[in-house]
Amino acid sequence: MRIWVLAVWSVMASFLGVQSNANRERDFGHGRFSVFVVAGLLMTLIFLLSVYGLVQLVMMYVH
Amino acid sequence: MSKAFTLALSLLSTPALADWQLNMNKGVTALSREIFDLHMLIFWICVVIGVAVFGVMFYSIFKFRKSKGAVAEHWHENTTVEVFWTVIPSIILIAMAVPATATLMDMYDTSEADVDIQITGYQWKWRYQYLDEDIDFFSNLSTPREEIINQSTKNSNYLLEVDNALVIPANKKVRFLVTANDVIHSWWVPHFAVKKDAIPGFINEAWVKVEEPGVYRGQCTELCGKDHGFMPVVVEVKSEADYAQWVADQKAMKLAMADEASKEFSMDELIAKGEGVYQGACAGCHQPNGQGIPGAFPAITGSSIATGAIGAHVDIIVNGKSGTAMQAFKEQLSAVDIAAVVTYQRNALGNTVGDMVQPSAIQK
Ligand SMILES: [Cu+2]
Asked: Is the pLDDT of residue B1 over 90?
């Protein structure tokens, strides 16, 4: 479980574009590639859905 | 008063200032003012950020300069600072998106219009079709050629004047459906804050509600070929009563034109009329002297079509030639105009065929 939480945190850090060197070394030292791919795709999907939802919300609010 | 002071004063007087105006227009509609205010808001946010960032930067460069013994600090990362300077701009951007979204929604709200007008870009003119009325006309540049080739002084509306302006009523919501017939153009009137791409096969929408009657000018603002700078936009905003009168006049004119088309014309009448049509609608490509531009636009002088069978000559003007710049003129010119320009091309510009065609024989 912990490995997933850390991966999600690292994906979020990559979205922001800021990551500490310590976390980077941890990810590249012990991380599993597949976990990052899945976490990355998942977070992208969540991001897209939230943008979509936000636009829907604004449109609803205006009309 | 010193000379410099007088000069400064004259520079500050309105006409001189107008020449030096750098900012966008406030415009003449509620929406254009909203867009202007949004622009100023974003502008001042940028100014504040710019002053703060460059202020800190220049201060640091000056205060900690090497000649004062400053030594560079060597450190690798500071996650807190990095998150800070990433999150703050993001928050500023999101905050700016709030008023921007509100304005954009207004701009795109073309619902419940009182008047619908289709605007079509052509090389190089605009066509205006009033969808609820039976009104449909082309709007061509009317600046005299002498002014363009520097043989007479240029008037104040140089290249911003047309034969038939778009006419719209004041205080009514007018919706524009913007498209193009050949290449991409863009319909732009700065005072309306409307700039819409006119794209073949697409319809883009825009709208205005102008409060004050007046004449507003704009241009095509998408590079569209040789005469891109010669297809201005002129919009005449009329009071409601004047607009109703104009609509009635247009309809009467249409009837009169249908009447004229059944008349018999003499050859001289057709040639005289045809010269005007030719210089207005054809000379841009085939050139005023009929010599064309080799490799691009064929000469009319000695052309096998303009000196051959009259039926084929009429046909290329009425229907154009697809895949070439020679467009179909049946929508743009009346039967009288087409008969006139055909007769003109056959008996002027160095051609001496000697025949003519009557408007009644033009099959559109
Ligand atoms: Cu154009």
From this structure: no
Is there a single domain that holds both residue B148 and residue B176? yes
Supply the CATH number for residue B273's domain.
Answer: 1.10.760.10
B233 touches B217 (CB < 8 A): yes
* CA pair distance B66, B243, nearest whole angstrom: 73
Residues B90 and B179 in one domain: no
pLDDT tens profile A10-39: 999 999 999 999 999 998 888 789 999 999
Q: Within a 10 A sphere around the Cβ of B193, how many other Cβ atoms?
A: 24
Q: What is the pLDDT of residue B282?
A: 93
pTM above 0.90, yes or no: no
Q: Where does a domain end: B258, B285, B309?
A: B258
B61 lies in some domain: yes
Per-residue DSSP letter, B297 = B
Per the structure, the complete domain to which residue B64 belongs is given by 18-108
Instruction: Nearest by CB to A16, from B76, B83, B101: name it.
Output: B83
Query: Is the CB of A16 less than 8 angstroms away from the CB of B76?
Result: no
Domain count across chain B: 3
Pairwise CB contact (< 8 Å): B86 & A21 = no
Q: Which pLDDT tens digit goes with each residue over B182-237?
A: 899 999 999 999 999 999 999 999 999 999 999 999 999 999 998 999 999 999 99
B82 in A contact zone (CB under 8 Å): yes
Contact list, A16 vs chain B (CB under 8 Å):
83, 86-87
Q: How many CB atoms lie within 10 A of CB B38?
A: 16
**Within-domain flag for B12:** no
**What are the φ and ψ backbone dihedral angles of B279, each rounded to 5 degrees?**
-65, -30
Residues B72 and B175 in one domain: no
Q: Which amino acid is at A21?
A: N
Q: Which of B77, B87, B101 sits opposite A20 (nearest CB)?
A: B77
Q: Which residue has the higher pLDDT, B77 or B100?
A: B100
Asked if residue B164 is part of any domain, the answer here is: yes
